[in-house]
Amino acid sequence: MGSVCVAASVQLKFASLSEDDVLVDPQRKLPALSFWLNKNNYNSQQAQLWCLTLFFTVSLDDWSLLADSSVLVDPSLSTYDVIHVSRDVADDRDMTRDWCLHACQEAESCAAVSLSEVESATRCVLYPDTTVCGLSSAPESPASSSCRLVVKEPAPQVYLRRGVFSELSQTSVSIPGQGVLQGVAVETALASDRRTVVQFLGVPYARPPIGSLRFEAAQPAEWMGTWDATKPRPSCIQPGDVASAASSEDCLYLNIFTPRGRVPVLVFFFNPSANENPGLLDGSILAAMGNIVVVTASYRTAALGFLSTGESGLHGNYGLSDQEAALRWVKDHISLMGGDNSRMTVGAERGGADITSLHLLSSSRPLFQRMMLMGGSAFSPSLVQTPSTSRRQALNLAKELGCVTSDLAACLRASSVHTLNAAQTKLLAVSGPFQSWSPVRQSISRSSFHRVDLLLGTSEHDGLISRARKIKDFESLQGRADSKTAFYEALSRSLGGATGNELLKEAAAWFYSLDHSPSAAGYNLFSRALNNATRDLFIICPTLQMARHWAENRASVFLYHQPASSAHDRADVYLPLDVQLAFGTPHHPMSSQRFASSDRRLSLAMMTYVSSFIRSGNPNPSRSWAESVLPRWQPVLSSEAPPTYLELSTNLHHQRGLSQSSCSFWTQLAPKLTSLTGDRNFYWFLLVSPMEKLLALCLALSLTASGWKTTPKLHLFRSSVLLFSVPSQTRNKIEIEHQRNTNMLNNGN
Predict the structure, then answer these.
(1) Are 172-661 and 679-746 in the same CATH fold?
(2) pLDDT at position 332 over 60
(3) Residue 725 CA from chain centroid, whole number
(4) Per CATH, which fold does 172-661 belong to?
(5) What is the CATH code for 679-746?
(6) Sorting pLDDT into bands at 50, 70 and 90, what band is 35?
């Protein structure tokens, strides 16, 4: 706020008299006025304004008198203005109060006023909006009680303006070289307050990738005149989507949610499904509560985003080019809508988080300063495909569509988007994660990552079965009754790693108890176990590896995990619960009835953490009051093994050892199994039960006693898994001997 608290527009309502217009009567007593602003005397113009504003009245209906429980005191607060009103000027306390409140109303960024008595004056402190929200100390208290105003000093009276930002902000913006975006101002309820957020929806950041631009990198948007940015446009079509106006190939649009002022920016890549309702990820609540600009953007995925044959016509990575184009558009234009393009965070969820993490390796790195990955990481084993794998997948799609190799690119471009989508959905239902369309890259060097502030998270409810719900449902609608079985078989094969190692797959089946009875209950147990296995292999363990890698390289990294929660059953199944908490979905009028009060308080806490991270790279608000409202989120340290993480539940406790045994299996045992079984000269048995281990020892002794030249090899891992290897050429003899020993033990001989 500036030092002059009264807007210049007040002067326009009065005529300023010259000396010739004024008669001086020495018999009249001159008024004795004394007043200070930040300990500086008013100049004559300010004194004039002081007098003029006494004619105005203030309605207390526009203000809320806050209780002590709604106020936090933070002596380190530095954004405020002070006015001392001497009692020689006005000894009527109501008039003094009204003047201070009016001064706040006339200052654009003023939101609150505290009043106290000091010596012979009334002290008015004017504050911008310093509202903070977090967990209440009372577990069952309503979410609104978790929001408090931060002031520098205690005061008997603290007033907060109702609807602090209810005035309409600028809803039209001129984009240089293109035209005018016409947005809409929307009032957003936040606890007991209401704030205005301006939405610019369906803003084109690139040309529609249709026709000849299918399978091409994103091209700059071309439009002129006035663009209706009051409604969202279709999102990018994805595998499993049914034909609907909610998704399309013409989909390179972003949605902007902006409060008032120059504030940091979150660019969140998100592709809502055509099967979802509503499809728009509303950033209004996060923007209002966190005082940040929120941008959500769609980008091409699957075959439309990453199909590649390795040839010039189909080079792949179109989805990555979409993301970079969106980031460049925001970097160039977001300042016109109140965003600070020098403080940009890029974020994404689930499979999109895997893909987005590749910007840590690319030329788009200067476009952002921080990254937030919710359910994905750069260390996922299925993140990238080699050119040969990608070409094989492209040829499979071409065959499904009836395209001949000689005219592959033209045929794929000529296919209708819904025909192509049905074909790729069918292939994905049986291919598994290592055969899906992914960014094409020969390898990833962990030493080449750009170091940025990082916020990572995982969820207990996540897993590849959960993520592929749309694909399974779509295939069932096509009448392919065996689609679920084929899909589960593909996922089971993926547990053998990229090479499909049978012994590794067998070990994973043992570790996760994937054996099941043919009953419905047994099948459900199998499905749950397979989901857990893929969650650990592709999501949680790679995320932990990335967190450790970041910490070891002295980069700032914060980690959370969403445990199993009853709130998950109440939430929208198509949108992960941690994403809903971060975007304030439990507070949205369309969805709040699905959530409990504890969910809304947790959402307030998550929004506070996220917005603080976007502002500073640290999710902890940099104020002395912070820990009285929210537990301090501890960073991952290089000296920690296993890393500390914040449990995203009601109490927000810190934990260690997330999926420790599972990740030991995938990061320690699995590589050894793969390397040992790579020797084709030996045949390997995996032995896990006590009986199997006893038989192996008996077999080794009997073979040695019988004079075999090659002694079987035994490899013990963590006292639970025994590997038994024999020369491949003796496999049949070994199996006969092994069966004989088994029969002897079973018969009690």
Answers:
(1) no
(2) yes
(3) 46
(4) Rossmann fold (3.40.50)
(5) 3.30.70
(6) very low
